[in-house]
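INPUT
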Amino acid sequence: MEILIIKGTEDTPRIEFDYEKGEFTISGRSLPEDVTSFYQPVMVWLEEFALKPKVESKFNFKLEYFNTASSKILLDILLKLEEIAEASGSSFKVLWHSQDSDPDMLEAGEEYADIVTIPFEYVTY
Amino acid sequence: MSLKTNTNFWLNEFFHLMKKHEIIMVYEGEFSQDITKSFLSMTESTFHNDQVSESVTKKVYNIMMEALQNICKHEFKFSADLQEKTESIFMIAENQHEYQIITGNTINSNVISIIKDKIDKVNSLDQDGLKALYKEARLNTTISDVGGAGLGFIDIARKSGNPISYHFEKLTETLHFFTQMVTVNKQL
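OUTPUT
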């Protein structure tokens, strides 16, 4: 699969999905005006990934800020990963990064972990 | 009234009023994604304050972003033929104990009860209740035509930790001006 790289901007996150390495990262800030169209390439990529998932893949979420619409899309992404993991028997891992000074961001990760069956690891910086 | 001869007078009065209401930032006019973006860089330095923890300034920042985007999505879009045009307003107030994020925008009067119900609901819940409501709402919501997820009030209430104050002022037979005030304590 092709590497997906979308450069980050002031209001949209960096997306870096490296299939060969099994490392996927969403980082920066997410407050696009149109979440659906911004994340469309990500959803399309995930559909393709579902067809031949990389068994031990790591999904990094390293966001400084995301708005509520992004929060919904991130949930959709995590549920899609859960679906792929369960269907293929893959062992995925989510690494949820947050700043020491941002307990709300840590809590946001824990709330996703409560819903999604993929194991979460927390990294603070 | 000549602007030139009276500027000093009304400016003093204006600043006095701002100081009286502890306003540290005001923006009134067009709201858009570009305007929201221009606030992004401003806040991170503006709120740096040795007496206030980073987690508090982060809350103010987050609430601000959500509030600005709410205005963009939900402010009443005036048609060209309407004589009067009310622009939206955004303010930050600060005193010894708290920050307040204040917004005002025109709305269609027929959405008043929807807004009121949403805010009254979040105001009635404690942090655990808000957490549960957010979880449920997020799972069941879809992204709307204007790109919103319908989670804004819940998110703002959670982050602020205080009840949201609001007011509806009648403008015309079909329009009201909706103001909202969100408080964040400096000491968590």
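end of record. The two ends of chain B are 48 Å apart (CA to CA).
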